[in-house]
Amino acid sequence: MTVVDETVRSRLIEPLATLVPAAELQGRIARLQAGLAALGLDAALLQQNADLYYYAGTVQQSYLYVPVEGDPTLFVRKVPERARAESALGAAVELTSPKALAEAIGERYGALPARLGLEFDVLPVAHFRRLEKLFPEAAFEDVGRTVVRQ
């Protein structure tokens, strides 16, 4: 878990807020990874606020990349300090632009996914088209049902 300066935490988070415990997030991620494996996917990329909160404990504007094996990463567009303070996930990195997402994933994980799960049930078409351009070699699959079942 990342240690966040208490002055940053108190400035960015409501004092009486209840944060999602690390063990809870880890269990949720592990169940999602089992679902990804069952679907034959390399990873999932989540961006809906409800799903970000459920799996990362924050709703900062971001993308949560969950590989089928290994640790997930929250790529944060806005207020990364707050995401780090709110999330017990452990890996919240700043993303300067959505256009840098594929490059950031490639650098962090060594390769881009060949089969990537997306939330088709809530993903706007414009966002999907952007992801098609960012991941031109990827085959996209729906992970919406897997997420909802959890």
Walk me through what this model shows.
With 150 residues, the chain is an alpha/beta fold. 43% of the residues lie in helices and 17% in strands. A 6-stranded mixed sheet has the order 4-3-2-1-5-6, sandwiched between helices. Strand 2 and strand 3 form a beta hairpin. The radius of gyration is 15 Å and the shape is globular. It starts with 5 loop residues before the first helix and ends with a helix. The model has no long low-confidence stretch (mean pLDDT 90).
Determine the structural class based on helices, strands and strand pairing. alpha/beta
The helix-strand sequence is HHEHEEHEHEHEH
Biggest sheet descriptor: 6 strands, mixed
Residue share in β-strands: 15-25%
Query: What is the average per-residue confidence, as pLDDT, rounded to a whole number?
Result: 90
- Helical content class: 40-55%
> Unreliable segments (pLDDT under 50, ≥5 consecutive)?
none
> Strands of the largest sheet, in order across it?
4-3-2-1-5-6
Enumerate how many helices there are, as a single number: 7
Apparent shape = globular
Rg, Cα atoms, Å: 15 Å
Q: Calculate the terminal CA-CA distance, rounded to whole Å.
A: 23 Å
Oligomer: single chain
